[in-house]
Amino acid sequence: MKEKTPGPRHFPVIPLLAPAIILLGLLAISSAFAKSQQLLLSGQDGQLTKTAQSVDNNIMGHFAWYCSDLEYITSRTAFLAAEELYLSGGKADSLLYHLRESPLPKTVMVESMLVLRGGRVAVSTGGRTDYTRLAVLGRTGQVEISLWEDGASRPYVALTLEKEEVGYAALMDAEVFFAIAERQTAAEESDRILVLDVEERYFFHRTPAGIRVDAVDSLDPAAHPSLYLMLSTQRAGEAVTSFFSAGNQSEGGRYTARLAVLPAPGNENGCFTVGVSRNYDEIIRPYQAAAVQMVLCGVIVMGGAALLLFFLLRSRRSHRQAQRELVLLRAKAEAAEQLNAQTQALAHRQRLESIGTLTSGIAHEFNNLLTPIMGYSILILEKLPPEDTESYDNALEIYNASQKAKKIIARLSNLSRKGAPGDLRPVRLAPLVEQVLEVSAPVRPKGVRVETGLSGQDAPILGDETQLFQLTFNLVLNSFEALSAQGGTVRVSTGAAAGQVTLRVADNGPGIPDEVKEKIFDPFFTTKGSGKGIGLGLAIVQQIVEAHGGAVTLESAAGQGTAFTISFPAAPPGGEEPKGV
User: If DSSP codes are grouped into helix, strand and coil, which group holds residue 273?
Assistant: First the structure.
């Protein structure tokens, strides 16, 4: 049996590349996580520094406010008179009264107002005098900021104003001072505010038991790493952000905290070093969990990517086919929609033409019938004897009814014509509106008021004055009809801008419901009761506007009135003098 010669060996390239790609992906995720940690740390440092600046500004703001009040209180005329009485050997009652009634002791911070003689407390509004000044922290204007304590070694922050023979101090409990400075900032609920005086005597901080003001000498910096950082930062004189290990077993275990410190020599108040710390473990823990999830998701995504690629390759052809069919269907739908719109417009035009043809025939036939009726009624009126009043009244009623019918026929005839204006001349709308209002005045209902806003400088338009008169008259009569029951105001105005001349007729009547707006320009459509209208007024208005190359706009809502705005192109310059001017 012939032995087969082994062929060239093929190494599995894809199985070797897959682990390499996965490793590169993990390294990329690790690098991205490291960068996100750095960005997070930078953002947290910025927030902590801003919070520390907020605390610093808050302290400085209270100092400036209280110092200004202290200077103002002690410079008032009544206070100076009480001070002079006290210095001349009188009692301090009047002086204490003015101090008690001043705004400072009525605030939350100030516990008591002190009167100093020779640097010692002579009297106070609280009655106690066992206060001792420990150290001067700084100065705001003429007011000195210092640390004090009482006989029980309880610390205070005082604002002191010294004069030649007497001094005054606003005494603030250190814990209350720190609580307000901490509360009125942009700090998060989990942040810890830390304050150290410039003399390194007292350390203000919050513990699970509440606010504490501890003497620095009584604390071990090794047991309070945040205090150690604040002391070193204050001595160095430069703001820093640093990690430290915080907490203890009794408080639920230790954690890594991030602290931002603004030293007293470099901040606004100049009296206190301000620090803000935040539990960094709570901040970074979600990111670490997210990193693990990202690695797991990466592995899942890579497996899913292979399946997705296979699926995409298979579905690519069907997707392209579906896209082509969708484009075709959209084109067909757009064509059908356009055809439907054209069909509706054509049907509407045909209906109007049919109505015009019908009304033209009806008008002609009715005119033929009305002419002999009116003629014979006149003959009867002329031949009746004067004493036959009943027959005379009946014949007169026939004649009047014929006249009304002839007017209706005339309106039908106007609708049936194509609407081309007759004698086109430059016409100004303002004088024409005045004529319409004068003619329509007798039919204006009681309780209806007419306002005008007619511009004497309106540009003229080229138009048929008779048709424009009829258009305006119809709109005014419609407004009168809308306000006949409740009364109201009709406002007619004209204007000109950008080559257009406008006529606006508005009323504050009941308005037009939405379901009626689309039909108001249709011939014979009316919402009036039987015998009150035939629905041709607005149809004729629209016909006249279109014949003059204009446009009509309706603004109306139920209960909010109605306004018709007619816009005409202005007449070109150089025409003959406008009619009515």
Answer: strand
